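Moderator note: this is an archived Q&A kept for reference. The question asked for a predicted structure of one protein chain; the sequence and the answer are reproduced below.
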Amino acid sequence: MLALACGGGEESLESYFGKLETAYAGALADLEVLGSDYAVAQTAAATDAEYVDATRAFLTAFIDGSDELVEALRKLKPPQEAANAQDELLAALINGTAIFAELRAGYKDRSRSEAEELGRALSGDLANISASEIAACGDLQEIANASAIAVDLKCAR
Protein backbone atom coordinates (compact mmCIF):
# COMPACT_ATOMS: atom_id res chain seq x y z
CA MET A 1 0.00 0.00 0.00
CA LEU A 2 2.93 2.37 0.55
CA ALA A 3 3.74 2.29 -3.15
CA LEU A 4 0.12 3.16 -3.89
CA ALA A 5 0.17 6.07 -1.48
CA CYS A 6 3.27 7.42 -3.17
CA GLY A 7 1.71 6.99 -6.60
CA GLY A 8 4.23 4.40 -7.79
CA GLY A 9 3.12 2.02 -10.50
CA GLU A 10 -0.48 3.14 -10.68
CA GLU A 11 -2.67 2.36 -13.68
CA SER A 12 -4.62 4.80 -15.79
CA LEU A 13 -8.16 5.43 -14.56
CA GLU A 14 -9.65 3.71 -17.60
CA SER A 15 -7.48 0.60 -17.24
CA TYR A 16 -8.06 0.45 -13.49
CA PHE A 17 -11.84 0.76 -13.73
CA GLY A 18 -12.03 -1.81 -16.50
CA LYS A 19 -10.20 -4.34 -14.34
CA LEU A 20 -12.19 -3.37 -11.25
CA GLU A 21 -15.49 -3.76 -13.08
CA THR A 22 -14.49 -7.20 -14.37
CA ALA A 23 -13.40 -8.44 -10.94
CA TYR A 24 -16.21 -6.91 -8.88
CA ALA A 25 -19.08 -7.60 -11.27
CA GLY A 26 -17.80 -11.15 -11.79
CA ALA A 27 -17.75 -11.75 -8.05
CA LEU A 28 -21.30 -10.41 -7.70
CA ALA A 29 -22.50 -12.68 -10.51
CA ASP A 30 -20.85 -15.67 -8.85
CA LEU A 31 -22.50 -14.72 -5.57
CA GLU A 32 -25.93 -14.64 -7.21
CA VAL A 33 -25.43 -18.19 -8.51
CA LEU A 34 -24.11 -19.31 -5.14
CA GLY A 35 -27.13 -17.77 -3.39
CA SER A 36 -29.54 -19.50 -5.76
CA ASP A 37 -27.81 -22.85 -5.25
CA TYR A 38 -27.94 -22.33 -1.49
CA ALA A 39 -31.67 -21.56 -1.59
CA VAL A 40 -32.24 -24.85 -3.41
CA ALA A 41 -30.07 -26.72 -0.89
CA GLN A 42 -31.92 -25.14 2.05
CA THR A 43 -35.27 -26.18 0.61
CA ALA A 44 -34.03 -29.70 -0.12
CA ALA A 45 -32.59 -30.19 3.38
CA ALA A 46 -34.69 -32.86 5.03
CA THR A 47 -32.93 -32.67 8.38
CA ASP A 48 -31.30 -30.04 10.53
CA ALA A 49 -27.94 -31.70 9.88
CA GLU A 50 -28.42 -31.37 6.11
CA TYR A 51 -29.41 -27.72 6.55
CA VAL A 52 -26.32 -27.01 8.66
CA ASP A 53 -24.11 -28.83 6.12
CA ALA A 54 -25.61 -26.82 3.26
CA THR A 55 -25.09 -23.59 5.17
CA ARG A 56 -21.47 -24.40 5.98
CA ALA A 57 -20.85 -25.29 2.32
CA PHE A 58 -22.41 -21.99 1.23
CA LEU A 59 -20.38 -19.99 3.75
CA THR A 60 -17.17 -21.76 2.70
CA ALA A 61 -17.81 -21.01 -0.97
CA PHE A 62 -18.74 -17.41 -0.14
CA ILE A 63 -15.57 -16.92 1.89
CA ASP A 64 -13.45 -18.46 -0.87
CA GLY A 65 -15.03 -16.16 -3.46
CA SER A 66 -14.56 -13.13 -1.25
CA ASP A 67 -10.92 -14.04 -0.66
CA GLU A 68 -10.41 -14.34 -4.43
CA LEU A 69 -11.98 -10.91 -4.97
CA VAL A 70 -9.79 -9.35 -2.28
CA GLU A 71 -6.68 -10.82 -3.91
CA ALA A 72 -7.77 -9.60 -7.34
CA LEU A 73 -8.35 -6.09 -5.99
CA ARG A 74 -5.02 -6.09 -4.18
CA LYS A 75 -3.29 -6.76 -7.49
CA LEU A 76 -4.80 -3.62 -9.01
CA LYS A 77 -2.80 -0.42 -8.91
CA PRO A 78 -5.44 2.26 -8.45
CA PRO A 79 -4.73 5.80 -9.53
CA GLN A 80 -4.32 8.20 -6.64
CA GLU A 81 -7.87 9.53 -6.97
CA ALA A 82 -9.30 6.01 -6.50
CA ALA A 83 -6.86 4.63 -3.91
CA ASN A 84 -8.78 5.67 -0.77
CA ALA A 85 -12.10 4.34 -2.06
CA GLN A 86 -10.46 1.05 -3.05
CA ASP A 87 -8.87 0.78 0.41
CA GLU A 88 -12.34 1.29 1.94
CA LEU A 89 -13.82 -1.34 -0.35
CA LEU A 90 -11.07 -3.80 0.55
CA ALA A 91 -11.56 -3.13 4.27
CA ALA A 92 -15.29 -3.78 3.99
CA LEU A 93 -14.73 -7.00 2.04
CA ILE A 94 -12.11 -8.25 4.51
CA ASN A 95 -14.30 -7.40 7.52
CA GLY A 96 -17.31 -9.07 5.91
CA THR A 97 -15.31 -12.20 5.18
CA ALA A 98 -14.21 -12.33 8.82
CA ILE A 99 -17.82 -12.21 10.01
CA PHE A 100 -18.83 -14.94 7.54
CA ALA A 101 -15.92 -17.03 8.83
CA GLU A 102 -17.18 -16.52 12.39
CA LEU A 103 -20.65 -17.53 11.28
CA ARG A 104 -19.29 -20.63 9.51
CA ALA A 105 -17.40 -21.61 12.67
CA GLY A 106 -20.65 -21.14 14.57
CA TYR A 107 -22.35 -23.73 12.40
CA LYS A 108 -19.91 -26.39 13.55
CA ASP A 109 -21.16 -28.60 16.37
CA ARG A 110 -24.34 -26.56 16.87
CA SER A 111 -27.95 -27.26 16.23
CA ARG A 112 -29.74 -25.47 13.45
CA SER A 113 -31.56 -23.18 15.87
CA GLU A 114 -28.33 -22.27 17.72
CA ALA A 115 -26.58 -21.51 14.45
CA GLU A 116 -29.50 -19.43 13.21
CA GLU A 117 -29.41 -17.47 16.47
CA LEU A 118 -25.74 -16.71 15.85
CA GLY A 119 -26.68 -15.50 12.37
CA ARG A 120 -29.27 -13.15 13.84
CA ALA A 121 -26.72 -11.88 16.36
CA LEU A 122 -24.23 -11.08 13.58
CA SER A 123 -26.80 -9.59 11.19
CA GLY A 124 -26.28 -6.03 12.42
CA ASP A 125 -22.53 -6.24 11.87
CA LEU A 126 -23.11 -7.67 8.40
CA ALA A 127 -25.55 -4.89 7.54
CA ASN A 128 -23.02 -2.25 8.61
CA ILE A 129 -20.27 -3.86 6.57
CA SER A 130 -22.55 -4.22 3.58
CA ALA A 131 -23.39 -0.51 3.83
CA SER A 132 -19.66 0.29 3.98
CA GLU A 133 -19.01 -1.87 0.92
CA ILE A 134 -21.83 -0.25 -1.03
CA ALA A 135 -20.64 3.24 -0.03
CA ALA A 136 -17.04 2.54 -1.10
CA CYS A 137 -18.24 1.00 -4.34
CA GLY A 138 -20.46 4.04 -4.88
CA ASP A 139 -17.49 6.33 -4.33
CA LEU A 140 -15.55 4.40 -6.97
CA GLN A 141 -18.51 4.57 -9.35
CA GLU A 142 -18.71 8.35 -8.84
CA ILE A 143 -15.01 8.71 -9.64
CA ALA A 144 -15.52 6.72 -12.83
CA ASN A 145 -18.60 8.75 -13.77
CA ALA A 146 -16.83 12.06 -13.12
CA SER A 147 -14.02 10.89 -15.39
CA ALA A 148 -16.48 9.84 -18.13
CA ILE A 149 -15.44 6.19 -17.81
CA ALA A 150 -18.31 3.90 -18.77
CA VAL A 151 -18.37 1.19 -16.14
CA ASP A 152 -21.15 -0.21 -14.00
CA LEU A 153 -19.84 -1.59 -10.73
CA LYS A 154 -23.36 -2.68 -9.70
CA CYS A 155 -22.86 -1.23 -6.24
CA ALA A 156 -26.37 -1.52 -4.83
CA ARG A 157 -27.46 -5.12 -4.31
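Archived answer notes: The CA atoms of residues 144 and 151 lie 7 Å apart.
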